[in-house]
Automatic annotation (TrEMBL):
CDD domains: GlnRS_core, ProRS_anticodon_zinc, ProRS_core_arch_euk. Pfam families: HGTP_anticodon, ProRS-C_1, tRNA-synt_1c, tRNA-synt_1c_C, tRNA-synt_1c_C2, tRNA-synt_2b. It comes from Polypedilum vanderplanki. One of its GO terms (cellular component) is aminoacyl-tRNA synthetase multienzyme complex. The lineage of its organism: Eukaryota, Metazoa, Ecdysozoa, Arthropoda, Hexapoda. Residues 657-896 form the Aminoacyl-transfer RNA synthetases class-II family profile domain. Keywords: Aminoacyl-tRNA synthetase, ATP-binding, Ligase, Nucleotide-binding, Protein biosynthesis. Residues 21-41 have a biased composition (Polar residues). NCBIfam families: gltX_arch, proS_fam_I. This is Aminoacyl-transfer RNA synthetases class-II family profile domain-containing protein. Residues 587-608 have a biased composition (Basic and acidic residues).
Length: 1115
């Protein structure tokens, strides 16, 4: 049978652990003073077990008493380096009948992410790792606070407010800090500021008092606690201080009774520091066992770099087979057993080397070769017919594996006509035998050629000749009805990094591999239909493959069969793709690709942006879009990650934007006569099946409810992916006469589409909010008029509310709404990624759905029954993501004034320790008076009167959240009857008289909106190109432009444009995504008329172009 990779790791608790209960069975109390000098093994007889590598030699290990831990930070997907660490720990857990602790190191609230906790647990499940305990470092935050205070009381730690840059210099120069000899009282005074998270406390840290003169930099008074005034995913805002990893690690290892701390050699210099904490706190000592870090050639493991590949579309997601993530390598065909054997074979070597991928795949081959069933596949477009004299069509039963009968048998067909690969045909010689695998010898009688090219071959049976020693061995398939052969694609991959080892200062973007994925359509063995997703097989004389997508016959919903997709599994040979019957192996360009620098085409003449502060964003928009976006929406308090992948919590700051969009749109459609309603979120299976053609487009994304408690439902119920199937049966009941028309309903609701692509908050989520309007009319003219009227409202949402320019147009036949006559759309553009994004759609459904659901009315003039004309239209919370992507900068969100929850924030300033209570009250009262004055002008305004934060901290906070105007009001402004207004869009400062506040602030808000729209419009215009030349087209695409080009409108041509623009190579280095160009829309405003001499943009298309179409990469 094909290889299956299964595991059954149970879900761990996500709310921490009861340490008293879970650790009751572990050896020795944590506060024992056991010596670091471990004795040699006593209870372990190493000869009783198979010694693999040198890992059995674990100092101090005793059977049944070994406790190890795997402590990842929940900030990303596990990669092969993490896999080595996890599997090594599991190895010792199993070798010594010990325990494995899975611990999330969540000491840094900025990096800890619940989503990635679930991702890591799923990755461990894939690796078949079963921890005995699940813990979090944060389970011990309270205990570590006590230990920190203990060290301060014993003068082994001190508080330090030295500037970080100066502290770094002092440590390098071995100079003691001015605070090193503080009194205990002074240290606790600063410590209390840190605990409260004050401005002063945020400038402090706690340092261990070790040895500033040590040649080991790790012992020069390292930081053990820092003040981070931000919420933690598990503890919320309970703590304002967090321990460093170096302080927490030895404590938690001791508390959890870890006997052996496995760490890579890069931590070697920190070992003395680790044991200093253990000794200072009188804790038991784990043994530190070091091993070499796993480095692979042609690979980057940095989360930031891998995210860049995902964000720019060069890979399909975090499980792309070209990625070094656990998901990626397993998807490509690596087995957990093969991975284990590779890691174990490295032994306890501490040498830092770069391993070639060939080595790991060679180990994998040893695992899969003995059990992978054999099948046949030929290149579909590169095969030759062989006519076999005297052969009859019959079935034979043959082994699936030539050396392993347990794999079973399969059925093959022989007959008078068979196919072979063209490359094999070129090796045949007339008059000689050739061995057709699993059949026998055939004698080649005649090789027919035209213009030196083989066209067919005549052969005769020679099965009685069983001499196979010197014959050419061929794979083949019997000619059968075409429907018997499953549509099959073999996919081959190459390295995404073209250089084996990158230098320390080399930019990885200069060595991006191109054409790293190649698909070949195959004529495949009908037996492949029996394979399941995840099976590992061998295509004889081609290599091993993993079934990434299994065959499925034509369903009632889709109407077409699902093809088989096979991923090639390298086997350790340098030439990974077999040559028989195959074109050349796809490879990365060996030329060094120069990195394309991020530049701006023109200088912004507006006031300069401020330098980034520590309270702001750590990632930059132009350098790491994915990390930047995640930080903007989380630190800007728009999104909270949730423990169901692809689902997110919309915080009030984000929901207010949606509320303002709803308020605007609701008012407009109410004036048009549209009424609100609500339909159930559950859809019956029968209703979905009635709408096959429409549902086929997103059938894989439909989520189903199958259980009620522990009982199976009589019939699965779908969670609403859209509401046509729910609403239209009711329309059929409600509409009987022309008097019932038009019916115009809209509902604001949530929908679920279980996306398989990498989720991204607002942009691509599994649950999202939207409005969906569904209307019915007596005439086509009325319906179509509404389509364009609604589209104009969607445009206004973007331009008039969000300050984002859009392109209005019609979708191509390929991209239109399934089941509709035509789809109109507004398309936005995100220059940071070079991608277009669909903003909203308005569909003219014609009579397609009314015929499907029998929605008819009696025409008053003809007295005959007629089908109604229908529309559907919708816009979703994706708008918020587009707004952030377009306007936000490296300081945070930039909110358009018309949708901002708070349009103006007042920050009182100039209050000092010498300010009298009377003056303080006068200033605050004046601020509140100004607040009321502007509220009367219908301005959404708030005042920040918190006394535990400085004005500077508040400035950063509200800039991060994107409030359009910040008003600064101090004692001097009070005397001068004025205030300072600071614009968020360009940081311009304006002094405004109090008497003009009611007029100047509303005018300033309008100016901000217009400035944002003008800036975004320029950005769109600068990135919009028009061309009739294919080479220019692909060059513009790779430079992150969207392109207007003449197009014939043909679906097959559009598919070819997308395919060929992704494969196109140029001599220049391109930094754009690798995906091909997709049609965004056919703009209503055409750049020019199509001329008689114009040709379709694809060079191989002979069709006459019909219109200019907007192409680009898209979300």
């Amino acid at each position: 049978m094909p290889i299956k990779v299964n595991s059954d790791l149970k879900n761990p608790p996500t709310d921490g652990v009861d340490t008293a209960e879970n650790f009751s069975s572990l050896p020795k109390d944590a506060n024992s003073t056991k010596s670091n000098k471990q004795e040699s093994p006593t209870a372990l007889d190493v000869d009783d077990r198979k010694q693999e590598g040198k890992f059995v030699d674990l100092p101090g290990a005793e059977m049944g008493k070994v406790i190890v831990r795997f402590p990842p930070e929940a900030s990303g997907y596990l990669h092969i380096g993490h896999a080595k660490a996890a599997l090594l720990n599991q190895y010792y857990q199993q070798a010594f009948n010990g325990k494995l602790i899975m611990r999330f190191d969540d000491t840094n609230p900025a990096k800890e992410n619940v989503h990635f906790e679930n991702v890591i647990l799923e990755d461990l499940e894939m690796l078949q790792i079963k921890p005995d305990l699940f813990t979090y470092t944060s389970d011990y935050f309270e205990l570590m606070l006590k230990y920190c205070e203990q060290l301060m009381k014993e003068r082994k730690a001190y508080a330090d407010d030295t500037d970080p840059e100066l502290m770094k210099q002092e440590r390098e120069q071995r100079v003691e800090s001015k605070n090193r000899n503080n009194s205990i009282e002074k240290n606790f005074e600063m410590w209390n500021e840190m605990l409260a998270g004050t401005e002063k406390g945020q400038k402090c840290c706690i340092r261990a008092k070790i040895d500033m003169s040590s040649p080991n930099g790790c012992l020069r008074d390292p930081t053990i606690y820092r003040c981070k005034n931000e919420p933690h995913p598990r503890t919320g805002t309970k703590y304002k201080v967090y321990p460093t990893y170096d302080f927490a690690c030895p404590i938690v290892d001791a508390i959890e009774n870890v006997t052996h701390t496995l760490r890579t050699m890069e931590y070697h210099d920190r070992d003395d520091q680790f044991y200093w904490f253990i000794d200072a706190l009188k804790l038991r000592k784990p043994y530190i066992w070091e091993y070499s870090r796993l480095n692979m050639t042609n690979t980057v493991l940095s989360k930031r770099k891998l995210t860049w590949f995902v964000e720019n579309g060069l890979v399909d997601g975090w499980d792309d087979p070209r990625f070094p993530t656990v998901r990626g390598i397993l998807r490509r065909g690596m087995t957990v057993e093969g991975l284990k054997q590779f890691i174990i074979a490295q032994g306890s070597s501490k040498a830092v080397v770069f391993m070639e991928w060939d080595k790991i795949w060679a180990f994998n081959k040893k695992v899969i070769d003995p059990i992978a069933p054999r099948y046949i596949a030929l290149e579909n477009d590169n095969r030759i017919i062989v006519k076999v004299n005297n052969a009859i069509l019959q079935a034979l039963e043959v082994p699936r594996h030539p050396k392993n009968n347990e794999v079973g048998t399969k059925t093959i067909w022989v007959g008078p006509e068979i196919y072979i690969d063209y490359a094999d045909a070129e090796s045949l010689k007339e008059g000689e035998n050739a061995t057709f695998i699993n059949w026998g010898n055939l004698r080649i009688k005649k090789i027919h050629k035209e213009s030196e090219k083989i066209t067919s071959i005549d052969a005769e049976l020679n099965l009685s000749d069983t001499d196979f020693k010197k014959t050419l061995k061929l794979t083949w398939l019997c000619k059968q009805d075409p429907s018997e052969y499953p549509t099959t694609y073999c996919v081959y991959f190459d390295h995404i990094i073209s250089k084996a080892v990158l230098g320390k200062n080399e930019d990885f973007k200069a060595y991006i591999g191109h054409e790293t994925r190649k698909e070949t359509k195959m004529l495949a063995d009908p037996e492949l239909k029996k394979c399941q997703k995840g099976d590992i097989i061998q295509l004889q004389r081609r290599g091993f493959f993993k079934v990434d997508q299994a065959y499925a016959p034509a369903s009632e919903i889709s109407g077409s069969e699902r093809p088989i997709v096979l991923y090639f599994i390298p086997d350790g040979h340098k030439k990974e793709i077999p040559t028989s019957g195959l074109s050349k192996k796809p490879s990365c360009s060996e030329k060094k690709q120069k990195s394309k620098k991020v530049t701006t085409e023109s200088k912004d003449e507006s006031p300069r942006l401020k330098k980034q502060t520590r309270l702001g964003l750590e990632a930059k928009k132009e350098e790491n879009l994915a990390d930047w976006y995640s930080q903007v929406i989380t630190k800007g308090e728009m999104i909270e990650y949730y423990d169901v992948s692809g689902c997110y919590i919309l915080r009030p700051w984000a929901f207010a934007i949606w509320k303002n969009i709803k308020k605007f749109f609701d008012a407009k459609i109410t004036d048009m006569g549209v009424k609100e309603c609500y339909f159930p979120m559950f859809v019956s299976k029968a209703a979905l099946e009635k709408e096959k053609d429409h549902i086929a487009d997103f059938a894989p994304e439909v989520a189903w409810v199958t259980k009620s408690g522990e009982s199976d439902l009589a019939e699965p119920i779908a969670v609403r992916p859209t509401s046509e199937t729910v609403m239209y049966p009711a329309y059929s009941k409600w509409i009987q006469s022309y008097r019932d028309l038009p019916i115009r309903l809209n509902q604001w609701n949530n929908v679920v589409r279980w996306e398989f692509k990498h989720p991204q908050p607002f942009i691509r989520t599994r649950e999202f909010l939207w409005q969906e309007g569904h209307t019915a009319f007596a005439t086509s003219k009325e319906a179509q008029e509404e389509v364009y009227e609604i589209l104009e409202l969607y445009k206004q949402i973007y331009t008039d509310l969000l300050a984002i320019p859009v392109v209005k147009g019609r979708k191509t036949e390929k991209e239109k709404f399934p089941g509709g006559d035509f789809t109109t759309t507004v398309e936005a553009f995100i220059s940071a990624s070079g991608r277009g994004i669909q903003g909203a759609t308005s569909h003219f459904l014609g009579q397609n759905f009314s015929k499907m659901f029998d929605i008819i009315f009696e025409n008053p003039e003809t007295q005959e029954k007629e089908y109604v004309y229908q529309n559907s239209w919708g816009i979703s919370t994706r708008t918020i993501g587009v707004m952030v992507m377009v306007h936000a900068d490296n300081q945070g969100i930039v909110l358009p004034p018309r949708v901002a929850y708070t349009q103006v924030i007042i920050v009182p300033c100039g209050i000092t320790a010498t300010t009298s209570n009377t003056d303080r009250k006068t200033l605050i009262d004046s601020c509140k008076e100004l607040e009321k004055q502007l509220q009367a002008c219908n301005i959404r305004i708030d005042g920040d009167y918190r006394d535990n934060y400085s004005p500077g901290w508040k400035y950063n906070h509200w800039e991060l959240k994107g409030v359009p105007i910040r008003i600064e009001l101090g004692p001097k402004d009070l005397k001068a009857q004025q205030f300072v207004a600071v614009r968020r869009d360009n940081f311009e400062k304006l002094t405004i008289s109090r008497s003009k506040a009611s007029t100047d602030i509303p005018e300033l808000l309008e100016k901000i909106h217009q400035n944002m729209l003008t800036k975004a419009t320029k950005d769109l215009t600068d990135h919009l190109k028009t061309t009739k030349n294919w080479k220019e087209f692909t060059s513009f695409l790779d430079s992150k432009y969207i392109i207007m080009a003449p197009f014939c409108g043909d679906i097959l041509c559009e598919e070819k444009i997308k395919t060929d623009s992704a494969r196109e190579e140029t001599d220049e280095a391109v930094q754009g995504p690798a995906m091909g160009a997709k049609s965004l829309c056919i703009p209503f405003e055409q750049p020019a008329e199509i001329q008689e001499s114009d040709k379709c943009i694809h060079p191989e298309c002979n069709n006459k172009p019909k219109f200019y179409t907007l192409f680009g990469r898209s979300y």
